[in-house]
């Protein structure tokens, strides 16, 4: 029993990814090869960037160290592009000669085509260090640490001109004996000690006596002998030093090895923080390369196999999959409708809902039109070729989430759903390395909704920032229409196919096996963006009478003949795209429809009564979170409440960070709560804008806020509101003068109302002579000058009204929320 528990705990995938200190067991040290010939093998790296560029634009250092003599070279660089590095290396090798081997890391500048051409041309064997194992290139890494410290100390004590003294710093390093060799780099390259500043001072103190000259032959012979002797001693010293280092390192090391085909976790640096690493995998050992290096393959990925040091690997312990699911209680807002399909072949044209207000001839005409497009109306999803959904997970590795457990009754429901989807071609059996669990959510009618939990897949999916339509703009287009039809596509997402890589990533696991979607399933990140892009292309060129928000398509017209023509054009586009329509959800020829939570049509836009009822029945909040929830629901209709900011102010004060979680419910809060519900229940009506008529803008300011309203004159010769605006002034803004506040109210309102009033002449009403300040703004008041220039874009006529006549804007300015549109 204990062994089973230990095995189960050890196979936890999350724990293996997080890791623990004992995971990084070191393998015995493999000493670097001892190179006897100077500059036969060199190590190269890039140091930097330093915090500030030098006056000459240098911020990096190209470093090079010789394996035999530890001779260092360094060149200051302005950038690390391959061409720049290539030129710097050419300058170095022009002095010391071209090496046989060169060791670098796997940086893109060292692996570029330019560099590979350079190695090939000069017969250089390019060696690449294993990723995330700096010890492979430890010689130059150690030098980088020393040189970096020298440069930083110079910058702190003197100036940022370190690139001018770089050679002097190298001189100091070359003159010091290397601890592993017992000789300085100068002695091993030149055969004698060089004369530096300290030697010059010593000669002045002791008196300099030049040595007698020697002929060239004797000098060359002595130099060769000295170099051979020095290099031999250095080699022996290095061998002894390596033995000591290995004995010290191997105290806590142990032999580790993997076989071809083993599953391993790889310690990889994070992209955002290269000095931080985490375990990723599992991956597969493809080949063993030497004593400590392994070629690791990445299954189900476009990444090429890479070489890793054994210290960056650990075994992966797999757990037998539990083929099961679990059932949760959920609400309709969490999981979208339309996921469950019962396989019925209904949905014919006879189920289309026609307006009861249509005349007999109009009903006959619309029936004939729908019948001519009868194949469109089907309960079976179509399959378009106009769009494909992709799932871009970058370099993320396959995620396989263990499935959940369910009852035998739920398993039977899952099997029925899978069979239906297989028959329809929605899914297919899968061998994908990806797998997400299934979640069963009970529907209000007792049925079970089949959903896939894609949260982990979504977390590694790159976002698609395709813009969604503004609901207010869509509603304003529909509001003026006399005839409106709404069309709902049959299980819209299922009509969009997935590309092949996305099919693998969409895989889900059940007790009946692993399957993957052929079409776009619900719950995927970027699914709305893909579908909106499809419908936008579908209705391209028809924007004057057709709009769509995802699969909710609306066609609007001012006359019946136009509406028939518009419907025919949209139906034809849908047919050409290979899509189908759900007949039962189609509303044809209506004068008012429910669209995006609103009642629109015949020049009006009203909130949906069902949601207003929900506000009216809302219980008294007891916590800050409950207050935020109520304000979130009520705020959805703030556009219909002229003084929403003023009414809700006591409630929004309860949500401040300084307030306790258990709210203190006062009489003022209850009054605001009751008044807000009553105001929303009074069914105020906001007029849709008519861009063929002039607009009127009124503004006002108070001590705490500013307000504005956009209005138009209706057929009843009364001005009806189109948009309400309110904004609470900040602490700094509240100390402005009255005139400045009034000016700011105008500037703020016109910027917010730019989509309505820009490019057309309109009237501006205010109860203060604020614009006099703007028209006379001088350069000594930058704020007023800036506002004056901002208003140059607008064409308006100014009307002064009394404060008593400016009730709406005045109310909006009193005790407003932070920036809001109501």
What characterizes the major β-sheet?
A: 6 strands, mixed
- Determine the CATH superfamily of the largest domain: HIV Type 1 Reverse Transcriptase, subunit A, domain 1
The total of helices stands at 26
End-to-end separation: 65 Å
Work out the radius of gyration.
38 Å
CATH topology of the largest domain: HIV Type 1 Reverse Transcriptase, Chain A, domain 1
**What is the averaged pLDDT score?**
77
What's the structural domain tally? 5
What is the CATH level 1 assignment of the largest domain?
Answer: Alpha Beta
Could you say which structural class the secondary elements and strand pairing correspond to? alpha+beta
CATH architectural designation of the largest domain: Roll
Oligomeric form of this entry? single chain
Q: β content, as a range?
A: 15-25%
Could you describe the 3D structure shown?
Strands 11, 13, 14, 15, 17 and 18 form a six-stranded mixed sheet that branches. A six-stranded mixed sheet has the order 30-29-26-27-28-31. A hairpin with a 5-residue loop joins strand 27 and strand 28. The chain folds into five domains: 2-27 and 255-315, SH3 type barrels (Roll); 41-220, Nucleotidyltransferase, domain 5, CATH 3.30.420; 326-602, Roll (HIV Type 1 Reverse Transcriptase, Chain A, domain 1), CATH 3.10.10; 606-681, Reverse transcriptase/Diguanylate cyclase domain (Alpha-Beta Plaits), CATH 3.30.70; 689-821, 2-Layer Sandwich (Nucleotidyltransferase, domain 5), CATH 3.30.420.10. It contains 26 helices and 31 strands. The longest helix is centred in the first third of the chain and has 34 residues, at 216-249. 35% of the residues lie in helices and 19% in strands. With 822 residues, the chain is of the alpha+beta class.
